[in-house]
Amino acid sequence: MKKIKWDKGHGGSDPGAVANGLQEKVLTHKIVEYAMDYLEANYTGFEQRTTRAGDQTLTLSQRADMANAWGADVFVSVHINAGKGTGFETYVYNGGVSSQTVALQNVLHGEILAAMRQFGNITDRGKKRANYAVLRETKMPAVLTENLFIDSNDAKYLKNEAFLKAVGEAHARGVAKFLGLPKKDKPTPSQPQQQKASDKKLYRVQVGAFGDRKNAERLAEELKKKGYPAVII
Ligand SMILES: [Zn+2]
Asked: Could you tell me the strand order of the sheet in which 124-130 lies?
């Protein structure tokens, strides 16, 4: 069981960046909830926790301590940028980091940027390093994402619920890829009924598929000549 710790940036008495009618703590809450729902629906072999289920106030060290005490395998801190810039960037600690940490940054950066670019021309501000407490104090691979700017034209994306969902799901896919989580088996809609209808399994052999019916008839004739029953569907 891999352990995933999601950190919703800010919260409680600390709203984070505020502009354009948006609060960073609300956006980070939504993105992480979308990420957790997506993992739950699509993958197995993991446990996940968030630093705050609701709107609690937490220090940076408390967030790192929680991840360390639990023995998390991965830590992802979600933030929204401010300062009137534009685009997406990710951070790892600017001290000594493991190759695993760099790998986590690479996979998350790629997944999230690609998801964002479904919605518009998003600037790639790059994979960066900084002395952030949650990155410095966590003992497992840890990445912090800065998901566009709350106080620029980027806000139009952050006001779009579908965008936040896509960004959350991309965080989840990145973590799943990094950890190599198995995908949940999703039965195709017709399978369960077929299995109920008969206890006996039927194995069918298909020998050809054709755009032109004449070609199918030709093959059916050939099979019949050789003594095989042939049916055109
Ligand atoms: Zn922040």
From this structure: 46-50, 2-8, 74-81, 142-149, 88-93, 124-130
